[in-house]
Structure formats: C-alpha cells, structure tokens
Amino acid sequence: MARLDGTVSVVTGAGRGIGREIALHQAREGAKVAVLARTKSQIEETVSLIEEEGHTGLAVQIDLTSRADVERALGRIVDELGPIDTLVNNHGSFRAFGPIWECDPDEWWQDIEINLRGTFHTCREVAPAMRSRGRGRIVNLVGGGTGNSFPNGSGYASSKAAIMRFTECLNDTTKDAGVMAFAVDPGLVRTAMTELQLNSPEGQAHLPGIQELFENGVNIPPERAAALIADIAAGRFDALAGRLLRGVDDRDELEREMTRLAENDDRALRFSGMPS
C-alpha cells in the first residue's frame, strides 16, 4: 500500500518543472492530485503523465492572486476529489531583476503578489477544513533570499522571507489542531524561471552569480524536493513542522537530527544573536 493512498494533494505551479515533479511523486505515493497553474496546456500535460502511470489527476486552471478564483478552484477540487489532505504551494514569479530604482515597480510588486498573496489565498481557503478534520499538511516553497540578502533580487527575496515567516505563523496557529505547515527550499534547479535569469539581458546584467553557480555544477534535480515533500506529506518530518527543509538535505540524516533541530530552534527565521 502506497503511503498516500486515499488522500488528496493540491500542487500549485504544477504545469512544469519542480511542480510537475512534486505532483508526479504525490501521485506515485497514491494520492489523487489536483494540478494547478495558469497555463491550461501545461497542467493538462502533467495530468496526462499522472494518468499514464495509472494514477488520478485533475487539471485546474487558476489565477492565484484572485481570491474568488482560488475559492472556486479549491471548491471544485473538494467536490471532485474529496477533502484536501496536502497543499503544496510551489508557484513562483521572479521577473524584477536589478537595483530597485531600475526595476519596474509594477513588475516588482507582481512578484510579491503572486508569491505571497497566492500562498495566503490557498492556505486561507484550505486550513479551516483541515482544522475541522483534525489533520493536514501544508508545504510552502521558499528559495533564494529567504534567510539572507539577495542583491538585485529584492522582490523575490522579500516575498520568500515573508513566506517563511508566514509558514511559521500558520503552523503555530494550526498545529494544535493537527495541521502542520512546512517551508521547503528546493535549491537551485534549472527551470523556466532560472532560464529567464540566465538568458534575459536584465538577468545577465544583474544576476551573474546564477550563471556561475550552474557553471560550477550546482544544479539540484527537482526530484530531490519532490521526494522530500512526499515524505512530508506522509508524516515523516512532522517533528520539524514550522521549519525549513531543503532539497539538498540527506533525508535519513535529517530524520536522525529532527529532535536536536527542534530543541535548538534551528531551521527557523530568527535574528542572530538576539533574544526571541
């Protein structure tokens, strides 16, 4: 019996890249998977891959910045697949590169809105039903700039740091009811987002470090984050709820270190050297 048999998973940004791998891993573990993104053709392709392996998928086109659209989409998922057990917020936007005085203000804010507001909308809709059922796991993807400065990537970094803190707040609000939230950093993965950073004039001018990292062999397979998130959905890392887990982590070592990490308040967004 697969670990997620009888459960329902929702994965945003699942039309390609990391999100597609997450959706496929959830399905392979037995979950019925709702695949969400803006582009209909991409989510339909992901669902086709899920169905080719004999699993159940549902393509749902969505604008995550629209509260009404999120309510409609998640309502449809519950109607067609059943109550949601796992929510994975994988969607992301990073188009505003450069010093803030050179960034288009609307584009900078759109990165914030898609990343942070989209995550807020899905969590706000899913968490109450999970609380009433006494169980559920929410995974919010973070990334570069979450716990450190990201020169020339301030919009993306600000949104990801905010998602990390939001995840901690959400977990502390819901864990007593059996609903746990986690942050996951997949690492530097070759995706459409990083291709834009590598190939656009703005990305080449303002984010040369990305190219250097790839040239030095840093390229984390998306399967690493997908396997980690499948473990989270199955309950393997419940002791680390509210904290940051990484695609580069050795999951067996992480499991052995869970108690110590929690006791030391590690993998959290904290001021260094200051009392809490």
UniProtKB/TrEMBL annotation:
Coiled-coil intervals, chain numbering: none
Top-level lineage group: Bacteria
Gene Ontology terms, MF aspect: oxidoreductase activity, acting on the CH-OH group of donors, NAD or NADP as acceptor
Gene3D superfamilies, per database record: NAD(P)-binding Rossmann-like Domain
InterPro entries with a match to the protein in the record: NAD(P)-bd_dom_sf, SDR_fam
Family annotation (Pfam families): adh_short
Record-level GO BP terms: fatty acid elongation
Alphabetized PANTHER family for the sequence: 3-OXOACYL-[ACYL-CARRIER-PROTEIN] REDUCTASE, CHLOROPLASTIC, SHORT-CHAIN DEHYDROGENASES/REDUCTASES FAMILY MEMBER
Annotated family: Belongs to the short-chain dehydrogenases/reductases (SDR) family.
Protein name as annotated: Short-chain dehydrogenase
Organism: Devosia pacifica
